[in-house]
Design a protein that fits this description.
Chain A is of the alpha/beta class. Helices cover 37% and strands 16% of the residues of chain A. Chain B contains 17 helices and 17 strands. The chains are: A alpha/beta (177), B alpha+beta (505).
Amino acid sequence: MRKLLFQSLLLQLPLTERAPTPEEAQLAELAQNVGSAALSRLGRSLSIREVDAGSCNGCELEIHALSNAFYDVERFGLRFVASPRHADVLLVTGPVAKNMREALERTYAATPDPKWVVAAGDCAANCGVFAGSYACVGPVSSVIPVDLEIVGCPPSPTDLLKGLIALLAPSSLRKLS
Amino acid sequence: MAWLKETLRQGRPANVAGARSRVIVDEAPWIAAGERLAAGEGSLLSLWGDTDTVNLAALEDESVGVLTLACPTGRFPSIGRLHAPAIRLERTIRDLCGLEPFPATDTRGWLDHGRWGVRQPLGRRDPATATGDAYAFRLAEGPPMHQIPVGPVHAGIIEPGHFRFTANGETVVRLEERLGYVHKGVDRLMAGASIDEAAKLAGRLSGDSTVAYAIAFAQAVEAALGLAPPPRAVWLRALMAELERIANHMGDIGAICNDASFSLMHAHCGILREEVLRASQVCFGHRLMMDCVVPGGVAVDLAKRGRTALRRLTTTIKRRFPELVELYDSTASLQNRTVTTGRLSAELAQQYGAGGFVGRASGRAFDARKLPGYPPYRELRFDMAVRDEGDVDARVWVRIAEVYQSVGLIEQILEGLHGGGLSASLSRQSAAADGREGLALVEGFRGDVLAWVRVAPDGTVARCHLRDPSWFQWPLLEAAIEGNIVADFPLCNKSFNCSYSGHDL
């Protein structure tokens, strides 16, 4: 184990890649959705609670990847937490399955204010291929208010990172709002 | 002895083409099939309902077939009564189609939580209130017992499901799962969908197995329409399937160690997983290779830079992975958590026909790539890793061995990849078509994925049934956790890594 640790430390350059810059469109979307009072609290370290409300698990795979050495999401102060009670941000995936609606509503209610909701993936944004099913309520925004959407099927870790970094760019947000 | 072959020979062919892969049977052979399965002769592959029939897919030696029983009275003789692995599938048939197994083994709903606003969505479609059904968990009662409800929203970045533990102090006495939270009504969406739309849905039943599902659905459609995909497409499919297998094994081996608080393995396995996904992106333009396999062939060719990326990937894995395996093998604190934890007996693995590494780590030597087998694997060399211990450690070792086998397969595929076309046209249907219905069994990373499809005369999907390997693995997790401490549940659960979405449909 020590050999592997020393090798990684001394012989290998860091794998972590440079931070992508957020899309202007996402910043504008946030500026429009987030009130100025709440805006002043963004830009700090944020705790994220991931909620799968009906996804196929593809989005979860890419959200997991955010924590690997290439993307290292924690360097931005973004942290995945185990309870909505510890969270600032709910990162919700999937078309909201009717069987998950109540769980999502309760998770949202359990998250202290101020809180933001990011809908990740095409399904969360518009139900994707599951649109029209008897078993789906609709996109995340039909159940809880959404502040930011990150599209893709699934969104790549870089796409996810761009969206999440937008939450950390309050100065640019203030300019836009 | 070969009851399945005999039943298929004696039953009435279910379709115009007269193919004997699906036959209509009476109640007697239906019940006999349940008894044979219960006696350990063959494995249950799936059980599903149609408008007014129930269908049972079974595997015995190399033969795979479907028995269909008409249920004009809305009832059918319960297979679950004879063979427990069928119970959840029968509850699903009742929920979706309204056909009742008798005598009923478990009258509680399974996928239907009473929230859809409709009952029997594949059957009578009765409007209903959506206020939610009460659910009676099976409890172990007595003074020292306490219950721990977990989920549907879990602590990690994972899918939703509910686990109800009954514990005696730290020891789990009983675990009961309640699933169905991510039911998205895929079977209904499939009915009437075009082949292209249905293929997209199949590829999103369980995102981690998107390639396996896409191949299974494509093979079923090709069997229904009598199409043969060109050789290059078949080989590229195998290439994608092996990349998917390595990516998932890498991610899970790391995650299992992480659940034992050994994050170093997690970090390094995460890097290798990312390398696989990036190579997949270079080769096929999508990290998870979604929608790259389509009925008739493949949608994308291996990119020019793909070969180089894959050569680099296999070299990297062969150089770095053995160090990680060595680390896993030589860290006593980690082994202390995985060895003898979450043991699954060989008898249960056999009874439930547990697919994938769950079965193979408990002595069930089954791999759909070998038997019944499908192209191009007959032309490729690989060994099946089988262990007998049945614990978390054995499941990790099976997956380690499979990483190496898949690397070997990728190298063989790169060497032997044929030139030629990528896709056969769906409109060019052959007269040899199997009555416009087809069955396929494909080995995903998690185990065998079953796809059965019936194509309507207008070329749309009339009915499609997809069965995730998790159907037969979830119940076994309940058995494997018994007698373990609650704190080892994440470890056991991750070592199974069943799909919620794939199961919930």
